Amino acid sequence: MSGIHIMPPSEAVLRTSWRPRVVAILAVLALASLPRIATAHPHILIDAHTELLFNAQGQLSGVTNVWDFDDAFSAFAIQGYDRKGDGNPTREELQPLAKVNLTSLAEYGYFTRVTVAGATIPFGSPKDYFDVFKDEKLTLHFTLPLSRPLDVRGKAIEVDVYDPAYFAAITFATDDPVQLSGGGGVCSASVHRPEPLDPGIAGQLAVIPADQRTLPPDLFAITNKLVNGLRVTCK
Questions:
Q1: Is the whole model's pTM more than 0.85, yes or no?
Q2: Tens-place pLDDT, residues 116-132
Q3: Beta bridge partners of 142
């Protein structure tokens, strides 16, 4: 695969301040067992890397997501998973967390949507999921196979990776945000990052508590447009 074109990134998603508080539920990643988490909205900041998988016949077969969580959330998330107590839990120690992550994300479609020629493509069960903690950051890896491989030659592929409620602010990473892997055809991709929020809207979102998943309709109408996506065409 070749011909990847990355559009110039917009300004980084507004980073709001963190302050600890007790929460009853963190449904977005099912980390309700954590005693404290940030309150400002968005509550989780994610740098995303997405890989489109093609089989030997050049058919689109799946999507792999790699999500780097911000430092503050990473520190909270690993609590209770570090059996050695050295601050560096292993991939094996974090596997129960990865399983919880994927189970909870299913309710939200894994914050990933693939459309081909305007039709939304369903996923099969996620696979190859695991967490890694390195350099004070937690990274979640998971692959979403399509329900069946699709011939996408000459068709427009759209892959959106974002949370419409902006509970998690997902933005494609600056370095290597997208890869096209596998055989057959030549594809080109363009990355579209969300526009920066108006300071007034950001202020309204910042006061929404962590245990409130549903946004007021006027705010949701805005966050739902903060699409982080890529557009791919294959010959």
A1: no
A2: 988 999 999 999 999 99
A3: 65
Count the Cβ atoms, other than its own, within 10 Å of residue 113. Answer: 18
pLDDT at residue 28 greater than cutoff 80: no
The C-alpha atoms of residue 179 and residue 62 are separated, in whole angstroms, by 12
Q: Are 40 and 17 spatial neighbours (Cβ–Cβ below 8 Å)?
A: yes
Higher pLDDT, 8 or 48: 48
Residue in 167, 142, 161, 156 with CA at minimum distance from that of residue 62: 142
Please give the full DSSP string across 97-166, using - where no structure is assigned.
Answer: HHHHHHHHHGGGGGGEEEEETTEEPPB---EEEEEEEETTEEEEEEEEEEEEEE--BTSEEEEEE--TT-
Neighbours of 109 (CB within 10 A): 14
Encoded amino acid at 80, one letter: G
Mean pLDDT of 130-150: 96
C-beta separation of 81 from 94 below 8 A: yes
Name, in order, each residue with C-beta under 8 angstroms of 16's C-beta and a sequence gap of 6 or more.
Answer: 40, 41, 42, 202, 205, 206
Who contacts 174 (Cβ-Cβ below 8 Å, separation ≥6)? Answer: 9, 47
